[in-house]
Amino acid sequence: PGSVSAAFQEHLRHLGLQDFPCGLGSWNKSCRNARSSPRAEAAGLEEAVPPGEETPEALLELLRDQRSPWALPPDCSPQDRLLREVAVLAPELLRGSRVFQAVKSLRILDKGVEEVDEGLLRFQQLEELILSANHISRVTSAHLPRTLKVLELCYNAVDDLQGLCAQPPPELQHLGLRCNRLCGPSQEKHLTVDFWPNLVSLDLSFNSLTDLLGLVSQLSTLQNLRILVLQGNPLALIPAYRGFLVDSLPKLSILDDIHIWPDERQQFQGLARQPELTRSEARVVVSIGEMKGLPDPKASQQPKVGPEGPVITYSYCVTYEF
What pLDDT score does 30 carry? Predict the structure, then answer.
């Protein structure tokens, strides 16, 4: 599927919310009718389950028992488990467009999604959206529910934040952009409090950001930022990289998955006032210890010819990409 909406519909078909043991059918027909009867509800009556039908408890057991053919895999999301159980206990809540109201967390991983379409606006209660490992290059913020608090776009092809920052969700607390194609210095201007007033966690690791001074000047406006991940960017090769960030962002608690302790903050005190230390260059020394799969010239058999026989030359080329 090319869009998030199409991927979600495919996911619903996989969950089978209208199929046994979920949904409405002959396996729970009497129970549904009794529950929907105002007279039975007012009297608190519980009718016996007719032969051939199942109780809600028995149907739930088929979902939860890992030996059952209808059980979800152990690594499925809590949201999927919740939807399946609601489809047993109150399947009428998930009929038609109602299913969109029941979803607070949506995870669509590695499904070939290319477009974040406006169909997402149907999820009026959505708080967490995980779209990692797809083929998304642009995000239109007008298509994102305003209720979002977590947005993960890791391992995609996002190379520009302008569309995402046009009308970003105002309550967003975590933004994950790990392993995309962001490159500076044009993107730093989109990472300010004007766009993300409640951002607590930001993951920009393994992109192509190079302007440490420009990035810090923008991130310093994010007063709620506590977790920052920048490792894997060229700017992380600068010798004073960590110290400069620690001193420049005093409210930061975790940098590159490492907690910032008071003694470290004291150690780097004053670096923020020495921007000349953050020179935008670095030297990398690479040593090759062993190479496999290449012919060894010493092991080659020399042709049986005279002293002026043919000369065999081997050439090897090693390429590094940063």
Answer: 64
